[in-house]
Each structure stands twice: as C-alpha cells, then as structure tokens.
Write a structure and sequence with these properties.
- By secondary structure, the protein is an alpha+beta fold.
- It is built from 1 helix and 8 strands, in the order αββββββββ.
- Helices cover 30% and strands 34% of the residues.
- The longest helix has 47 residues, at 2-48.
- The protein starts with a helix and ends with a strand.
Length: 158
C-alpha cells in the first residue's frame, strides 16, 4: 500500500512539474518563432527592394540638379519622402533635406514619378535638388537611401 501511495504522489508531482515546464517554455518558443517570422519578412522585403540611379543632369543655370532613380526590385517602395539623399562634390558631400524638412533652406530635394502613380517595379523617380546658387564645377557624388536601408550611389561631372 505504501508503494502505491508513493507512486501516485510521484506521478502527480511529475505531472505538476511538466505543467510548470510547459507553461514557462511554450511562451518563449512562441515569442521566438514570431521574432523569426518577423525577421524573415524584413529580409524578404530587403531582398525584393532594389534601386538604381540611372542618370544625373543639371539645369542651364546650374541651380537645379536632377537624378533619375529606377525601382529595379520586385516590390513597391513607399514613404519616399523619408529617404535620405547625400549629394555634393566628391570629397565634400552632405545630407540634403527633403523639401518639407528643409524649412525654406537650400539645398533641398523633391521628387516626382515619371511613369507611374506609385513607385512600383520599373517606375522611375525624378529627384530635383534645388540650390540657391551655382554649386560649382567638378565631380559630384550622390547616394540615395530608401527607408529600409537599400541604397545606390552615382558619380557624375557638372
């Protein structure tokens, strides 16, 4: 009879321990799997997003510089105004603020879509950099970075 009671108590204690282990391990496994799914989605988004600066030019009075950036990825790019643009002479470039963030100052940049209403695959974005006066001649560097960190850079002469 003592062995039966001891065995029954050990079985009950084992079941209670298993419930405690399950209740503490299952939420961690669930959270880590959600984190893995989220990370996989971010990696997938980055792999599907690609841009390419295809051309650059300046206006006759040289206060406007144009960059054409093509979406060569397989995903639509959103929040274009949250992108970063670095531009300037080869060894003296700076981050150019978007027109809404420039508070009326120069230089600043704005954009328009050339061949679509959204920046879908194969659509081209025309970026206009506005200066208050001629920035000068030389080799210029430009780098455009979309909000998820994908970028392209381009050198050209003015």
């Amino acid at each position: 009879m003592d062995k039966a009671i001891t065995t029954a108590l050990l079985i009950i204690a084992g079941v209670v321990c298993m419930i405690f282990v399950f209740n503490s391990v299952y939420p961690m496994v669930n959270r880590s799997s959600q984190a893995m799914v989220s990370m996989a989605q971010q990696v997938d988004e980055r792999m599907k997003s690609r841009i390419n600066i295809v051309h650059a030019a300046n206006s006759a009075n040289r206060t406007l510089v144009y960059l054409w950036v093509k979406n060569v990825g397989t995903q639509r790019i959103v929040a274009i105004d949250e992108s970063d643009l670095f531009f300037g002479q080869e060894n003296d470039f700076e981050r150019i603020p978007y027109v809404d963030d420039a508070e009326g100052g120069y230089p600043r940049w704005d954009y328009s879509l050339e061949n679509d209403t959204e920046w879908q695959t194969s659509a081209t974005l025309k970026i206009t950099i506005t200066y208050s006066s001629d920035p000068g001649t030389g080799t210029y560097y430009s780098k455009f970075i979309i909000p998820i960190g994908i970028s392209d850079e381009y050198y050209f002469s003015m």
